[in-house]
Amino acid sequence: MGIITIEELPARLAGGKTLAGLDLGDKTIGVAISDQRFSFAHPRPVIMRRKFSLDAAVLLALLQKENAGAVVIGLPINMDGSEGPRAQKSRAFVRNMAQMSDLPFVLWDERLSTVAAERTLIEMDFSRRKRAGKIDSAAAAFILQGVLDRLQSLHASARTESDPPSAV
């Protein structure tokens, strides 16, 4: 299917589907899955990267098991708003996945998601060693939670706009 906008997501998530979030690293793919009410992001174990075809097969099996209707991928945009080599790698990953799956993908600005995830794990008193194994899935959960919060905001705005003005 390829890339869609966040506004197109609700139509893709009907029928008990969940939403997946991914944080692409060089060595791992962090994964998080939403609940069916699209309120909370839940981290899942990371996928160790080996070769794209193997990584894609593992990821697609997980997405099917989790009943994902769409996937959010963190897009590592530079602090000045430009896209560098890492953003291009993320876009290439989506292009390659789109050839293997009909799932739609949403690109989400992930600036500082890893920093926020690391701070949270430190606050939870995880050792440096334990943080290393959880950071990518925690970052995926931060990315996904940002999208879930935005979806809730869009839904609330749509309700407000459709309500008739109250009589004074």
From TrEMBL:
Could be a nuclease involved in processing of the 5'-end of pre-16S rRNA. InterPro entries: RNaseH-like_sf, YqgF, YqgF/RNaseH-like_dom, YqgF/RNaseH-like_dom_sf. GO terms for cellular component: cytosol. Residues 17-117 form the YqgF/RNase H-like domain. This is Putative pre-16S rRNA nuclease. GO terms for biological process: rRNA 5'-end processing. The lineage of its organism: Bacteria, Pseudomonadati, Pseudomonadota, Alphaproteobacteria, Hyphomicrobiales. It comes from the Bacteria. The keyword Cytoplasm applies. PANTHER family: POLYNUCLEOTIDYL TRANSFERASE, RIBONUCLEASE H-LIKE SUPERFAMILY PROTEIN. Pfam families: RuvX.
